[in-house]
From TrEMBL:
Gene that produces this protein: phaZ
One Pfam family matching this protein: PHB_depo_C
PHB de-polymerase C-terminal domain segment(s): 206-406
Protein name: Polyhydroxyalkanoate depolymerase
Amino acid sequence: MFYQLYELNHAAMAPFRAAADIMRFAYANPLNPFSHTPFGRTMAASLEMFERTTRRYGKPEFGLKQTTIGDRTVSVREEVVWSRPFCNLLHFARSVPAARGNDPRILIVAPMSGHYATLLRGTVEALLPSADIYITDWIDARMVPMTEGTFDFDDYVDYVIEMLHFLGHDTHVIAVCQPSVPVLAAAAVMEEARDPLSPASMTLMGGPIDTRINPTAVNKLAQERSLQWFSDNVIMNVPWPQPGFMRPVYPGFLQLSGFMSMNLDRHLVAHKEFFMHLVKNDGEPERHRDFYDEYLAVMDLTAEFYLQTVEEVFIKHSLPKGELMHRGKRVDPAAIRNVALLTVEGENDDISGVGQTKAAQTICVNIPEDMRMHYLQPDVGHYGVFNGSRFRREIAPRIIDFVRQHSRSAIKPPVPRVIKGGRAG
């Protein structure tokens, strides 16, 4: 009943939250003489803190309306080009001149680990000037009716394969954090089937390929608890009146509690500083609002996908052991021969320890040496692997260079030799 109590509490607080918001506007209104006094600013700051700590944060928008290509600013249009019950594929269509030619096509697979795909807004923004970008927009499981069926790890791999088929030849894929495992699995499945639409390259960033290496607090928690413990303690049914009523899920608010507790002191200090900036009215609070509007917006995961991921990735380490299964058949990373591999890690990553992502280089034994590269970014944590100034300045250019280097469109197919009395070869 914990999820139901959470919803009940949220509903019960609604009138108080609305009242606090109205009073905040009154105290912050420049026409109110009190708004220019320390008392008025303190009241407005206190009321905003109350409203923000009791609200549910909705799904943010990408809000990427334009990008700069060369010395020219072009408009960007966001459109859904492929859709399934648990995911939409978004395309950031750029108004580029025809004379520019084709930029590499990149599919970014966003993590399905509690936050929305908009967490990768900075990733998309940094790559847009140089590539045609698509991103997986995973749908909050509590918004998917039970009639749409289940969604597990096998379905995730299938979705990735379907999207690669939809996008077609010479598509490059980037997996950020959690999807590194299913994306590598999808590439292996496609390569083993000799699928001509397998990705030209895959970039794995801060992903838990082998969590036995430099285990973090997240990895250790999974090892200390049984799968039954996770099923009994974190899986709950979506309450009425949500569209996904009665669907078993791992609630987003529980995931958020875990995120917050890992760096609780940092979050408390940030909120204290936010309050003081509001009182001083020095213009600094906007950065805090932007960050936490994104950070506190969370989504539910289907129980079957969450539990299967915990078991296969964090408890059994199935992929690096060669034991991962997809639709009853073993996933063989050694089957990957034609997909270039770039792995990226952050030196201070406290979610996926250093070496966990690089392990993909070891298990994909048949990728030629000239088609693989590993990069360790100094002085960044998990978030800095895919966002921030160092990502824009040092990581994103390496990704674009790697993608362009291994574009299949740039490679001319062999010209058939016709031998008299024989056949083309």
